[in-house]
């Protein structure tokens, strides 16, 4: 059974997948809500702090991705650190997070289109979780999902090239907003950046947590490292720069919206940046902002749909999932069976509609924070177990990834502890999390943990990771 992936992704494709995977959709129109809650300064400065923390988190991925350039990213690292138990835990967290986001995109994509064509949200419908799901909306969402699947099916090179085009569109349109916003706008619209009665420091700190949800998706660089046709050292740099590029993009576009129109007025609008530019006399740029929203959804959709099957492929290579899921197309070099499984799962959940899938998104945020913190622990463990391992991108001190990991763990803890500002919604989200935990336990208890992993999983045996001195000490 073919299981070798092709090195089809170049530098620009990889960085487009990384940064494009981070830049999402809702941030560009929900800034009206965040401006109102935290002030323009709270959102923008909070995002800056969150970006620094996200970079700290990414350092562990950056180093390990240059040691183990195999598909699966954290699944592989966790195996090297903790064995199959660790790999299963990492896969459970990441797959759960990505599936929840992908399922949400099924209906979110058509909801965005309905902003331009309201007739889409009319006609026959069904109701789930108190929210209407129109059949036409669902059909459009399924069509977009199938298109994303087809692009991924025909190879990582095509996926990377499509992502480059979409990401270029994001950059060009964003640059136009930024240039016009700063030239035609004025600092007086932004300053003072907080409401008079607001505590500026607490407003900034309070937004750091929701800001972290804007900065996910870069993990895909490590997950798809096996298909990267670039030097190992560059892979680690792409992981980090994916966050930096996306964060700069977010901050400049949001700042331009606060320059072009008084942010306190934008705070009372429905569509944030879109309405700000339209009200300021630039309706075309308001449309550009909407297009950015759709492109952001498309780039995130494409990246996560590419990354999730690679996680499944990796677990199958490790004999933690059925071996058939490790099959790779002989011509296109893509994990076709894993792709098909992801498509079935996404469509199987996606029909629930926005009302139910909001719960899945919150669970996804908890799981991704858990995965981030666990990866920092994996790096610490691997450094201790295999001190002679050489990395193309090596961090001199573990202080920064450890701080990032601790912060990520604090986010996950605050999510599941009732009564915090970011607690899960009782009882619905706790029930969904409970179901995913049960599924994870079933997979863990029924998996064949004694069966050895395939040669394609780690790229080498655990024994080979040790130095000659370490090997002698084992005997």
Automatic annotation (TrEMBL):
One example GO MF annotation: transmembrane transporter activity
Record InterPro entries: AA/rel_permease1 (IPR002293), APC_superfamily (IPR050367)
Location(s) in or outside the cell: Cell membrane
Transmembrane residue ranges: 9-29, 44-68, 89-113, 133-155, 162-183, 203-226, 238-260, 280-313, 334-352, 358-377, 398-418, 430-447
Main location: membrane
Entry keywords, A to Z: Cell membrane, Membrane, Transmembrane, Transmembrane helix
Entry-linked Gene3D superfamilies: Amino acid/polyamine transporter I
Pfam families on file: AA_permease_2
Superkingdom per UniProt: Bacteria
One GO cellular component term noted in the UniProt record for this chain: plasma membrane
Membrane topology, record value: Multi-pass membrane protein
Parts forming coiled coils: none
Protein name in the entry: Amino acid permease
